[in-house]
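Example record used in the benchmark description.
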Amino acid sequence: MLKLHSFTFNPFQENTYLLWDNDTKDTAIIDPGCCTTAEQEDLVSFIAQYELKPGRILNTHAHIDHILGNAFVHEKYKIPIFLHEEDLPVMHSLSEVSRMYGIPATPSPNPDVVMKDGDCINVGRYEFKVLFVPGHSPGSVAFYNSKNNILISGDVLFLESIGRTDLPGGDYFTLMNSIQNKILSLQDNVIVYSGHGPSTNIGHERRHNPFILEFLNS
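Model output (C-alpha coordinates):
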Protein backbone atom coordinates (compact mmCIF):
# COMPACT_ATOMS: atom_id res chain seq x y z
CA MET A 1 0.00 0.00 0.00
CA LEU A 2 1.18 3.49 -0.86
CA LYS A 3 0.98 5.83 2.12
CA LEU A 4 1.38 9.58 2.55
CA HIS A 5 1.87 11.86 5.53
CA SER A 6 2.20 15.64 5.54
CA PHE A 7 3.89 18.10 7.88
CA THR A 8 3.39 21.87 7.89
CA PHE A 9 6.77 23.51 8.35
CA ASN A 10 8.48 26.91 8.53
CA PRO A 11 7.02 30.44 8.60
CA PHE A 12 5.58 29.95 5.10
CA GLN A 13 3.37 27.07 6.30
CA GLU A 14 4.77 24.76 3.64
CA ASN A 15 3.64 21.17 3.21
CA THR A 16 6.42 18.61 3.46
CA TYR A 17 5.35 15.12 2.40
CA LEU A 18 6.54 11.66 3.27
CA LEU A 19 5.49 9.15 0.64
CA TRP A 20 6.22 5.48 1.17
CA ASP A 21 5.54 1.89 0.16
CA ASN A 22 4.16 0.38 3.33
CA ASP A 23 5.49 -3.08 2.47
CA THR A 24 9.08 -2.16 1.69
CA LYS A 25 9.16 1.08 3.75
CA ASP A 26 11.01 2.75 0.86
CA THR A 27 10.32 6.46 1.32
CA ALA A 28 10.53 9.71 -0.62
CA ILE A 29 10.80 12.97 1.29
CA ILE A 30 9.15 15.64 -0.82
CA ASP A 31 10.09 19.30 -0.33
CA PRO A 32 11.65 19.13 3.13
CA GLY A 33 10.88 22.52 4.63
CA CYS A 34 11.92 21.85 8.23
CA CYS A 35 14.00 24.79 9.44
CA THR A 36 14.01 24.55 13.25
CA THR A 37 15.33 21.89 15.56
CA ALA A 38 11.77 21.07 16.65
CA GLU A 39 10.63 20.60 13.05
CA GLN A 40 13.64 18.46 12.25
CA GLU A 41 12.91 16.32 15.32
CA ASP A 42 9.27 15.91 14.29
CA LEU A 43 10.34 14.60 10.90
CA VAL A 44 13.01 12.25 12.26
CA SER A 45 10.73 10.96 15.01
CA PHE A 46 7.96 10.07 12.56
CA ILE A 47 10.39 8.29 10.25
CA ALA A 48 11.78 6.28 13.17
CA GLN A 49 8.35 5.49 14.62
CA TYR A 50 7.12 3.95 11.38
CA GLU A 51 10.50 2.39 10.55
CA LEU A 52 10.64 4.18 7.22
CA LYS A 53 13.66 4.00 4.94
CA PRO A 54 14.26 7.37 3.26
CA GLY A 55 15.68 6.85 -0.21
CA ARG A 56 15.47 10.22 -1.94
CA ILE A 57 14.60 13.91 -1.60
CA LEU A 58 12.24 15.09 -4.32
CA ASN A 59 12.03 18.85 -4.80
CA THR A 60 9.02 20.08 -6.77
CA HIS A 61 10.93 23.36 -7.06
CA ALA A 62 13.61 25.28 -5.19
CA HIS A 63 11.90 28.22 -3.52
CA ILE A 64 13.19 28.79 0.00
CA ASP A 65 10.22 27.28 1.83
CA HIS A 66 10.54 23.99 -0.04
CA ILE A 67 14.28 23.43 0.43
CA LEU A 68 15.03 24.78 3.92
CA GLY A 69 15.43 21.20 5.12
CA ASN A 70 17.39 19.86 2.14
CA ALA A 71 20.80 20.10 3.79
CA PHE A 72 19.62 18.55 7.06
CA VAL A 73 17.79 15.63 5.45
CA HIS A 74 20.57 15.03 2.91
CA GLU A 75 23.15 14.83 5.70
CA LYS A 76 20.97 12.86 8.12
CA TYR A 77 19.98 10.09 5.72
CA LYS A 78 22.74 10.31 3.07
CA ILE A 79 20.17 10.33 0.26
CA PRO A 80 20.17 11.99 -3.18
CA ILE A 81 18.39 15.22 -4.03
CA PHE A 82 16.25 15.36 -7.21
CA LEU A 83 15.58 18.71 -8.93
CA HIS A 84 14.79 19.98 -12.42
CA GLU A 85 17.79 21.77 -13.92
CA GLU A 86 15.81 24.95 -14.69
CA ASP A 87 15.49 25.55 -10.94
CA LEU A 88 19.22 25.37 -10.21
CA PRO A 89 19.55 29.20 -10.18
CA VAL A 90 16.64 29.34 -7.73
CA MET A 91 18.34 26.81 -5.46
CA HIS A 92 21.60 28.74 -5.60
CA SER A 93 19.84 31.95 -4.49
CA LEU A 94 18.82 30.45 -1.12
CA SER A 95 21.34 32.38 0.98
CA GLU A 96 20.37 35.71 -0.58
CA VAL A 97 16.65 34.99 -0.22
CA SER A 98 17.04 33.81 3.38
CA ARG A 99 18.74 37.11 4.30
CA MET A 100 15.90 39.01 2.64
CA TYR A 101 13.31 37.17 4.73
CA GLY A 102 15.45 37.07 7.88
CA ILE A 103 15.26 33.28 8.07
CA PRO A 104 18.49 31.39 8.77
CA ALA A 105 19.17 28.79 6.10
CA THR A 106 21.88 26.26 5.35
CA PRO A 107 22.57 26.22 1.60
CA SER A 108 21.14 23.18 -0.15
CA PRO A 109 23.59 20.72 -1.67
CA ASN A 110 23.40 20.58 -5.43
CA PRO A 111 21.03 17.97 -6.84
CA ASP A 112 22.41 14.49 -7.32
CA VAL A 113 19.78 13.72 -9.95
CA VAL A 114 18.53 16.21 -12.54
CA MET A 115 14.93 15.41 -13.45
CA LYS A 116 13.34 15.83 -16.86
CA ASP A 117 9.76 15.80 -18.08
CA GLY A 118 8.52 12.24 -18.42
CA ASP A 119 11.08 10.68 -16.07
CA CYS A 120 9.78 7.90 -13.84
CA ILE A 121 10.75 7.68 -10.17
CA ASN A 122 10.00 4.59 -8.14
CA VAL A 123 9.02 4.68 -4.48
CA GLY A 124 9.11 1.03 -3.58
CA ARG A 125 6.79 -0.69 -6.06
CA TYR A 126 5.02 2.54 -7.02
CA GLU A 127 5.97 4.61 -10.04
CA PHE A 128 5.67 8.37 -10.22
CA LYS A 129 5.90 10.25 -13.50
CA VAL A 130 7.63 13.62 -13.51
CA LEU A 131 5.49 16.36 -15.09
CA PHE A 132 7.36 19.52 -16.07
CA VAL A 133 5.00 22.36 -15.09
CA PRO A 134 6.91 25.67 -15.17
CA GLY A 135 5.39 29.05 -14.43
CA HIS A 136 5.54 29.35 -10.66
CA SER A 137 9.25 28.79 -11.01
CA PRO A 138 11.28 27.97 -14.14
CA GLY A 139 11.79 24.33 -13.16
CA SER A 140 8.64 23.38 -11.28
CA VAL A 141 7.61 19.75 -11.53
CA ALA A 142 4.75 17.63 -10.22
CA PHE A 143 4.79 13.92 -9.39
CA TYR A 144 1.94 11.74 -10.70
CA ASN A 145 1.02 8.18 -9.78
CA SER A 146 -1.74 6.92 -12.06
CA LYS A 147 -2.43 3.70 -10.13
CA ASN A 148 -3.39 5.55 -6.96
CA ASN A 149 -4.62 8.76 -8.62
CA ILE A 150 -2.18 10.96 -6.72
CA LEU A 151 -0.57 14.20 -7.86
CA ILE A 152 2.02 16.04 -5.76
CA SER A 153 1.69 19.47 -7.34
CA GLY A 154 4.12 21.68 -5.45
CA ASP A 155 3.04 25.31 -5.78
CA VAL A 156 1.48 24.96 -9.23
CA LEU A 157 -2.10 24.30 -8.13
CA PHE A 158 -3.93 24.82 -4.84
CA LEU A 159 -7.49 24.44 -3.62
CA GLU A 160 -9.30 27.00 -5.80
CA SER A 161 -6.06 28.88 -6.42
CA ILE A 162 -2.78 28.75 -8.33
CA GLY A 163 0.85 29.45 -7.57
CA ARG A 164 2.02 33.03 -7.54
CA THR A 165 3.90 34.23 -10.60
CA ASP A 166 5.44 37.47 -9.35
CA LEU A 167 8.63 35.87 -8.04
CA PRO A 168 11.81 35.82 -10.17
CA GLY A 169 11.37 33.37 -13.03
CA GLY A 170 7.60 33.20 -12.64
CA ASP A 171 5.24 33.75 -15.54
CA TYR A 172 1.44 33.68 -15.48
CA PHE A 173 0.81 32.42 -19.01
CA THR A 174 3.48 29.75 -18.68
CA LEU A 175 1.87 28.57 -15.45
CA MET A 176 -1.64 28.51 -16.87
CA ASN A 177 -0.49 26.60 -19.93
CA SER A 178 1.23 24.09 -17.66
CA ILE A 179 -2.00 23.64 -15.72
CA GLN A 180 -4.10 23.35 -18.86
CA ASN A 181 -1.82 20.94 -20.72
CA LYS A 182 -0.35 18.81 -17.94
CA ILE A 183 -2.71 19.00 -14.95
CA LEU A 184 -6.20 19.30 -16.44
CA SER A 185 -5.42 16.40 -18.78
CA LEU A 186 -5.60 14.11 -15.72
CA GLN A 187 -8.79 12.42 -14.53
CA ASP A 188 -11.21 14.27 -12.24
CA ASN A 189 -10.65 11.82 -9.37
CA VAL A 190 -6.92 12.53 -9.11
CA ILE A 191 -6.16 13.86 -5.63
CA VAL A 192 -3.92 16.92 -5.62
CA TYR A 193 -1.52 17.36 -2.70
CA SER A 194 -0.34 20.96 -2.85
CA GLY A 195 2.67 22.74 -1.45
CA HIS A 196 0.46 24.77 0.89
CA GLY A 197 -3.01 24.28 2.31
CA PRO A 198 -5.42 21.34 2.03
CA SER A 199 -5.63 18.74 -0.69
CA THR A 200 -8.13 18.96 -3.53
CA ASN A 201 -8.89 17.04 -6.72
CA ILE A 202 -8.76 17.75 -10.44
CA GLY A 203 -12.53 17.67 -10.92
CA HIS A 204 -13.13 20.25 -8.19
CA GLU A 205 -10.51 22.58 -9.64
CA ARG A 206 -11.84 22.13 -13.16
CA ARG A 207 -15.30 23.25 -11.98
CA HIS A 208 -14.54 25.75 -9.22
CA ASN A 209 -11.06 27.21 -9.54
CA PRO A 210 -11.66 30.85 -10.55
CA PHE A 211 -8.22 31.25 -12.14
CA ILE A 212 -8.70 28.18 -14.31
CA LEU A 213 -12.24 29.16 -15.28
CA GLU A 214 -11.16 32.68 -16.23
CA PHE A 215 -8.23 31.43 -18.28
CA LEU A 216 -10.19 28.75 -20.14
CA ASN A 217 -13.00 31.17 -20.93
CA SER A 218 -10.80 34.05 -22.04
